[in-house]
Structure formats: structure tokens, C-alpha cells
Amino acid sequence: MGLKRQWVLLCPVLSKQPPLPVVRLRGLPFDCSEADIVEFFHGLDIVDVLLVRKNDKFTGKAFCVLAYPLQVDFALQRNKQNIGRRYVEISRSKRQTYYKAIANEVSDSEGCAPHRSASRAKSSDDGKDSAEHTWVLLLKGLPFSAGKDDIMNFFNGFALSENLIHITATSEGRPTGEAFVEFASEEDSKAAMERDGMTLGNRYIELFPSSHEDLNATVSRAGNYFFY
């Protein structure tokens, strides 16, 4: 299906954030795709897949972010199972390790086509602290059944308009678990960051400062569209 994500009153302190439900995979076939990993974890809710590359070549390693911590235990039960002819090693990972892999990928992609969008590149705790706040926030980890009403309830107390909430989906019409929200002011978007790490349904939501440029770039990126 292709999970291409091309990711104070500011961000809460890292130690206060819930652990990121992420696992690391090793020993993947070198022709492995994000869709193969999603299929490997069939039955689990996948928020993101990061294929680790070096010098633009796949290393056989990947990170997979799940919808909530309990699913990590289920993912670990698939340790040593096969993708193709190779068995895959699965282990727990840390938020910092995952974000470092993102930063390395962005750095490695300098001078060539990047594998992730600008919004994904900002998906680190340092990025949250240092990113310039505009009127736009990017939400990650949404329940796939979440609609605009759910997002408005999540941000209860802020003046939001339904036509300024943009929920993304794949070209097959399947929600990606991400959305952009345009607030009434920069001050509102900063204040809304206090809800980073809070839950919507049975998932916790990560918030990232974004921009209209990121939003427009996602609109134009092949393979994604918005529910309006």
C-alpha cells in the first residue's frame, strides 16, 4: 500500500512523554519494501515504516512504529519469522534511536532525492523545540477511523474549522494516520502543542510544528491525497 511519508508551552520534556512504540528489524531482504513490512505485521496497526539506507542503498534494516505500546509485544512475537527467504530479527527500539535514524537519512540524502518530506525530517524532539511555529500542526498516530469531529474534540477549546483540517490517505483511499490542522493563529498552534502525547481513542497522538509549505508539498506528492 506504500506508507510513503515524505513526519513551550512548547513541546513537553522528553522524559514526560510516553515511550514510542517502535521496533527495529534486521536481516530484511534487500528488495524489501514498506508494503512487505506492513504485510509481515498483518493484523497490527502500522503508523510508520522507515527503511534504513546508507549512500542511497538499503541496509536490510528498518524501523516500524506501531499504533500503541501493547502492539510492540505482538510484533516481537514475530521475531525470527521470514520475509521471503530471510528470517527477520525484531527488537525493541527507543524513540531517540528511531529519530537518529531519520536524521541520518536526511543527512545522507543531501545532494540526492530525499526519501522523506520536510515534515518527516522535523519529526524529532530537537525539531519540535527548534522548529519555527506557524499556524499549522502535523498530527501523527491518528486512529484510522478518526474523522474531523474527533480531531476537533481532541483540540477542544481551540477555534477550529472543519475545512482547515486535512486528513491524509493513500492513493488506495486508506488513511495514513496523519493530518494537518490549520489554527487561527501562531499562538494557538503553540498552545496546542501541550496536547502532544495525549490519546485519541486508544492511540496517543504526536504533534509537530509544520507549515503551509509542508501541507502544500504533501498535497502535490504522488500517492497521497486528502479527505476534505
Structure in words:
- With 228 residues, the chain is an alpha+beta fold.
- The protein has two domains: 103 residues, 2-Layer Sandwich (Alpha-Beta Plaits); 106 residues, 2-Layer Sandwich (Alpha-Beta Plaits).
- It has eight helices and 13 strands.
- The strands form four sheets. It has a five-stranded antiparallel sheet. Strands 2-3-1-6 form a four-stranded antiparallel sheet, sandwiched between helices.
- The longest helix has 14 residues.
- It is elongated, with a radius of gyration of 17 Å.
- The protein starts with 21 loop residues before the first strand and ends with a strand.
- The N terminus is likely disordered.
- GO terms for molecular function: RNA binding.
- Keywords: Repeat, RNA-binding.
- InterPro entries: ESRP, Nucleotide-bd_a/b_plait_sf, RBD_domain_sf, RRM_dom.
Condensed summary:
The protein has 228 residues and is an alpha+beta fold.
How many domains is the backbone divided into?
2
Uncertain stretches: 1-15, 110-126
Mean pLDDT: 79
Number of strands: 13
CATH class of the largest domain: Alpha Beta
β-strand percent reads 25-35%
Largest sheet geometry: 5 strands, antiparallel
Entry keywords:
alpha+beta; 5-stranded antiparallel beta sheet; 13 strands; Alpha-Beta Plaits; single chain; 27% helix; 28% strand; elongated
Question: Helices, strands, pairings?
Answer:
Layout lengths: L21 E5 L7 H7 L5 E9 L2 E10 L3 H7 L5 E2 L2 E2 L1 E4 L2 H14 L9 H4 L3 H6 L5 E5 L7 H7 L10 E6 L4 E8 L3 H7 L6 E2 L2 E2 L1 E4 L2 H9 L3 E4 L1
Antiparallel strand pairs: 1-3, 1-6, 2-3, 4-5, 7-9, 7-12, 8-9, 8-13, 10-11
GO molecular function: RNA binding
Keywords: Repeat, RNA-binding
Protein name: RNA-binding (RRM/RBD/RNP motifs) family protein
